[in-house]
Amino acid sequence: MIGVDSGSSIGTVTAAPVSAGTGVLPAPGTDEKVILSIRDLNVYYGNFHAVGGVSFDVPKNQITALIGPSGCGKSTVLRCINRMNDLIPSARVEGEILYHGQNVVAKGIDPVAVRRRIGMVFQKPNPFPKSIYENISWGAKINGIKGNMDELVETCLRKAALWDEVKDKLKENGLALSGGQQQRLCIARTLAINPDVVLMDEPASALDPISTLKIEDLMRELERQYTIVIVTHNMQQAARVSDQTVFFSLGEQRMGMLVEVSPTRELFTNPRDQRTEDYITGRFG
Ligand SMILES: Nc1ncnc2c1ncn2[C@@H]1O[C@H](COP(=O)(O)OP(=O)(O)OP(=O)(O)O)[C@@H](O)[C@H]1O
Ligand SMILES: [Mg+2]
pTM for the full model? Predict the structure, then answer.
């Protein structure tokens, strides 16, 4: 059923309705198992066919990892899911990305509304040059979130496993935190918009091993409430942290294509495709 989800909230804070533009995003169904369904996705940059015929489902409240060699289109696919590819002038997207059953790449759907529901965390931590508190409250306010900001800031920092480390210095600049803390601040900021899907493009690749494990633990914690899609170059990380893995490879003329989607344990122990096996055993890529 198509409706406006204006009731979602964190504590006493209420999210803005997402009926911006002519497109209205549907309210989440309580019994759905698949939150995103990618159907025959093709992406072009100018004349270059970067991603061809990609289809897979993203199960709700699970972590899906996208893996594959450099240039196979992992970031491209991820960016399509929350319409970030709209910001690249040469990019053209064909196919469907169904979010709660509604095609978010269709004409008439407001990309800003999509990004409120499907948040993104980038490789390099990118806090605003503002206080830790404002990193969360300011981002939330400009996205139409209203309510008790003290409560929102604390809830989001707790969810991002950062509260204990920063509760006494909320007025300090977010950029003064360590890289791993900055990344958790960016995750907290993303959660403040009240999304139900969080996309992460190599969120730990710039971090030391301890910060990386913290982010991985955090992802496991967050999957109870959110659905996560992560791009990672680190196969151990994909194996440790994800429930489902999607393996992409390069086809003719360097077009990225999907080779295999399987439960993570299965993909790493008993891959169905020879190309997957070659990649995970280090014979390719
Ligand atoms: N803004 C862009 N303009 C033109 N071509 C692009 C752009 N972004 C990506 N591409 C091309 O699309 C293909 C897929 O790139 P993408 O960044 O999605 O790969 P990736 O799998 O994320 O690679 P990596 O593992 O190196 O991050 C590559 O051939 C890349 O050169
Ligand atoms: Mg990439």
Answer: 0.91
